């Protein structure tokens, strides 16, 4: 990120903006910030420093964080880019099958869905070395880790594959809805978005038993868990659906933007990437209230949170943006 040198006048302006828009005087007279402390510490509390973009491969799709680095799958260049999260430095680019799609981190290794090869690739997180390639269903898309196993949503075979993370052994294949796109884990259960069924499937993580199927908006794509609720980004109607994780009860449907794809939770808020609007919508997780809309590059896709910043893939420019 380029350094910025402020004149005295500019400093006064910035401080004035901070006072007006970000500080609130409580009854005790103590000012409080609306940003989290880590954002303040790394100077991400003012608008001039909000978005930075880094080049990756062709048609970036999914993104994951490994605790220190960001991994971006590049669907058309059949690889994955590893960037250092603190400054976006490209650590390496590694082959990851044909049609690199969903990505997940298991604590040591990176798993990448190879959409055109009907498989998943396991890479060592430290250096990107290939550790194995394992069969999945047809058109594997989203990937998630449940603490011991890898779950893969198979878009073209309408099922999910469960693999043991330690060695890639197949543990089961379970039917879901029509054209499953993405998958998330809530600590006990697996949730799968079904693009053409307009719903989400809940499976018990221990054995894949069906726990329920629940309606969402039109064409759900991304899915995320916020600690209590399940959120889906609905491409077809530009909304986000919030369901209670315990029983799938609908808690709300919230407007986002056109062509909503990715969704991620940052500990307090839900971020939804809107491909047709070239922006990202920030909603308060507790009640879905709109907090912000941030312009990014055209065709934003999936997202990840690194503890301080949101990362979103930008397909039109073969890049990833850091917010």
Describe it.
With 323 residues, the protein is mainly beta. The protein folds into two domains: 1-49, no CATH class; 54-322, Methylamine Dehydrogenase, Chain H (7 Propeller), CATH 2.130.10.10. Helices cover 6% and strands 52% of the residues. The chain contains two helices and 30 strands. The protein has helices at residues 8-21, 37-41; strands at residues 23-25, 31-33, 52-55, 60-65, 69-74, 79-84, 90-95, 100-105, 109-114, 119-124, 130-135, 140-145, 149-154, 159-164, 170-175, 180-185, 189-194, 199-204, 210-215, 220-225, 229-234, 239-244, 250-255, 260-265, 269-274, 279-284, 290-295, 300-305, 310-314, 319-322. The strands form eight sheets. Strands 3-30-29-28 form a four-stranded antiparallel beta sheet, with no helix packed on it. The protein has a four-stranded antiparallel beta sheet with strand order 4-5-6-7, with no helix packed on it. The termini are close together.
């Amino acid at each position: 990120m380029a350094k910025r040198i402020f004149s005295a006048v500019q400093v006064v302006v910035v401080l004035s903006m901070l006072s007006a828009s970000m500080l609130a005087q409580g009854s005790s007279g103590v000012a409080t910030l609306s940003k989290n402390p880590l954002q303040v510490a790394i100077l991400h509390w003012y608008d001039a420093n909000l978005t930075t973009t880094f080049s990756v491969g062709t048609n970036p799709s999914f993104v994951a964080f490994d605790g220190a680095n960001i991994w971006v799958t590049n669907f058309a260049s059949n690889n994955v880019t590893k960037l250092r999260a603190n400054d976006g430095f490209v650590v390496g680019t590694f082959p990851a099958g044909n049609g690199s799609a969903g990505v997940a981190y298991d604590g040591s290794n990176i798993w990448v869905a190879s959409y055109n090869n009907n498989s998943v690739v396991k890479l060592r997180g430290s250096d990107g070395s290939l550790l194995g390639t394992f069969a999945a269903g047809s058109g594997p898309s989203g990937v998630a880790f449940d603490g011991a196993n890898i779950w893969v949503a198979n878009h073209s075979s309408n099922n999910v594959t469960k693999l043991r993370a330690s060695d890639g052994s197949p543990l089961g294949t379970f039917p879901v809805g029509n054209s499953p796109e993405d998958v998330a884990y809530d600590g006990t259960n697996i949730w799968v978005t079904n693009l053409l069924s307009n719903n989400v499937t809940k499976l018990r993580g221990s054995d894949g038993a069906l726990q329920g199927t629940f309606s969402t908006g039109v064409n759900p794509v991304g899915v995320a868990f916020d600690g209590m609720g399940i959120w889906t980004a609905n491409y077809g109607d530009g909304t986000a659906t919030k369901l209670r994780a315990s029983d799938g009860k609908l808690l709300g449907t919230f407007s986002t933007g056109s062509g909503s794809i990715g969704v991620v939770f940052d500990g307090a808020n839900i971020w939804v990437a809107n491909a047709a609007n070239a922006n990202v919508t920030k909603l308060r997780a507790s009640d879905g209230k709109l907090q912000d809309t941030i312009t990014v590059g055209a065709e934003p896709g999936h997202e990840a949170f690194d503890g301080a910043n949101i990362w979103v893939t930008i397909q039109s420019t073969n890049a990833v943006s850091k917010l």
